[in-house]
Amino acid sequence: MSGPLAALRVVEICDELGQYAGKLMADMGADVVKLEPPHGSSARGVGPFVDDEPGPNRSLNFWYHNTNKRSVVLDLDNSEKDRELARDLINGADVFLEGLPPGRGKDLALDYDTLVVANPSLIHCAITPFGQDGPWANYHSSDLVALAAGGPMNMNGYDPEDASGAPPIHGKGDQAYNTGAHYAVMGILTALVARDASGRGQYIDCSMHEALSSSTEVGLPHWLYTNTNIFRQTGRHAAVIRTERWLHRARDGKDVLVFNIGRSNESWKKLKIWMQSHGFGKQFDEERFDDPSARQAARGGTEAKEIFQEVSRFVAALDADDVYRGAQACGLPWGTVRSPDETVDDLHLHDRGHFVETKGEGLEGRALMPGAPYVMSGTPWEFRFPAPKLGEHTDEVLRELRDPTLG
Question: What is the pLDDT of residues 31-83, one digit of tens each?
């Protein structure tokens, strides 16, 4: 086994909230043992499914979020023997990651105060929607509710001319769950560093709500420092005033995101030459465009508005890929808005070996899934095995519990 966390044993009891934290550690080499009830984690019921046929081992969402883990079925609700087995597993672990409702761990004698007696070096991370205490501690949530209550959803939406009166928009892709999971992993890794110095573990109370409220970009700062609210805008940052549009339609019908125009004199000069070679932006040689601050969006200046209007005409005269590559040659961070199939066909991602193949029940052959989110030279990310079938490793892990030399 390789990876920077190869020496760690993690016991995980998580559904949609928290499972990504376990995946990140498992993909970094940790031995992550996922404890599931007899009917399986509720995450196994999240689609899409292979051939649109639901089943505990057919969720593609589950496949991605549970790579490199081992599944053990224990009936913690109804069996004291299984609860004892869970405690025995945690007693031999470095990290206990759980998403149980507040107080439920104590009911099962799987709370930190109980576990730390037998395992003083244990790092126990409890990830919940709203934390272990406070007036909302026992409230229920979901990815959608968390984005709404935490604030990020207030940042996402449309300009009035695109969708008059449009409500806030739910960003997809398990953003709330995965944001909470990222913060959980950061807390766990920090606690591991502290344990290296002290020899003792600690308890981590990770709130998805608090993770999201610290991820609202300009929303909270504007309110805290200027007492002003932001406007939602189409395809660009929310702001306290309407800013120039960033999305522009190219000749081939694809959208291009135009960003960071004119901040650098060097890139501005290159952009002018490029646009003027196609017959656009002839007026940009006028002295009024020389000051970088006059060229900046959201400053209320007429020059910036004029620049973006001309850029929009320019983009409409070219195909999206030509705009993308031409802008990059000018040192500008522009990009095309891609569909999923275009992303999967991205030669750059394939050249870097980003995608990996996985397999599972009901699938003939293999399917692609995103691989390493980082490339490490000494302790590389590794896709060791696919997400486990329900209870696939129960016998194996319990044998190791009886005879630690087998682990």
Answer: 999 999 999 999 999 999 999 999 999 999 999 999 999 999 999 999 999 99
Give the domains, in start order, of the chain with CATH numbers. 9-215+372-406 (3.40.50.10540), 247-341 (3.30.1540)
Dist CA 22 CA 37 (whole Å): 17
Determine contact, residues 128/210, Cβ cutoff 8 Å.
no
Say which residue the tokens 């507040």 belong to. Answer: 102
Beta strand pairing call for 247-249 and 255-257: antiparallel
Give which of 147, 220, 204 is closest to 178, Cα–Cα: 147
pTM, rounded to two decimals: 0.93
Instruction: Please pick, among 170, 182, 237, 354, the residue that the annotation labels catalytic.
Output: 237
**Residue 325: exposure state from Cβ atoms within 10 A (0-12, 13-18, ≥19):** exposed
d(CA 404, CA 248): 61
Q: Is 237 a catalytic residue?
A: yes
Burial of 43 (0-12, 13-18, 19+ CB in 10 A): buried
CB 356 within 8 A of CB 350: no
Dihedral, 228, 233, 238, 243 alpha carbons, nearest 10: -80
